[in-house]
């Protein structure tokens, strides 16, 4: 039985309970990339490629569609109108990614709702159903 819209209309965030993981030396790779206004596109691309092609210990890769830069110590900037569209910065890589593992999920940020029109998985689903 479907729940009424009021039961889920405000639910737009993903919560994760987990740990920071750093691989053993000598390479010591982290399982995350913190993106801020100084992060260059090539760094995001390198992290994406590493997580999806090189790392065999990553099961799910979450990528924000947007990040507002004025909200916390991780994403800090003074003007809330400045946003990074993380997934869009590397959209060609995201859209061309078709592997089952790691699973790739685009997620909303706290200031931008999830946009299914940009999500590569949703685009494929629509294509399958002829939409």
Question: Which secondary structure elements does this structure contain, and how are they paired or packed?
Answer:
Blueprint: H1 41-54, E1 60-64, E2 67-68, E3 83-84, H2 86-89, H3 91-96, E4 103-107, H4 120-128
Parallel strand pairs: 1-4
Antiparallel strand pairs: 2-3
Family: Belongs to the V-ATPase F subunit family.
Membrane topology: Peripheral membrane protein
Protein name: V-type proton ATPase subunit F
Report on the architecture of this protein.
The protein has helices spanning 41-54, 86-89, 91-96, 120-128, and strands spanning 60-64, 67-68, 83-84, 103-107. The strands form two sheets. The chain has a two-stranded parallel sheet with strand order 1-4. A two-stranded antiparallel ribbon has the order 2-3. By secondary structure, it is α+β, with helices and mostly antiparallel strands. It has a single domain (17-128), classed as Rossmann fold, CATH 3.40.50. It starts with 40 loop residues before the first helix and ends with a helix. Its main location: membrane. This is V-type proton ATPase subunit F. GO terms for molecular function: proton-transporting ATPase activity, rotational mechanism.
CATH architectural group:
3-Layer(aba) Sandwich
N to C succession of SSEs? HEEEHHEH
Q: Determine the CATH superfamily.
A: ATPase, V1 complex, subunit F
Which overall shape is indicated by the principal axes computed on the Cα atoms?
A: globular
Task: Note the gap between the termini.
Answer: 26 Å
Tell me about the largest β-sheet.
2 strands, parallel
Classified by CATH, the class is: Alpha Beta
| Poorly predicted runs | 69-81
CATH topology: Rossmann fold
């Amino acid at each position: 039985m479907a729940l009424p819209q009021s039961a889920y209309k405000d639910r737009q965030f993903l919560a994760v309970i987990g740990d920071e993981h750093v691989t053993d030396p000598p390479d010591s790779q982290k399982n995350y990339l913190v993106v801020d206004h100084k992060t260059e596109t090539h760094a995001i691309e390198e992290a994406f490629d590493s997580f999806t092609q090189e790392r065999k210990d990553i099961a799910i890769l979450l990528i924000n569609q947007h990040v507002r830069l004025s909200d916390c110590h991780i994403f800090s900037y003074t003007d809330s109108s400045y946003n990074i569209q993380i997934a869009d910065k590397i959209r060609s890589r995201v859209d061309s990614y078709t592997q089952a593992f790691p699973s790739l999920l685009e997620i909303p940020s706290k200031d931008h709702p999830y946009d299914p029109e940009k999500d590569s998985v949703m685009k494929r689903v629509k294509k399958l159903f002829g939409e």
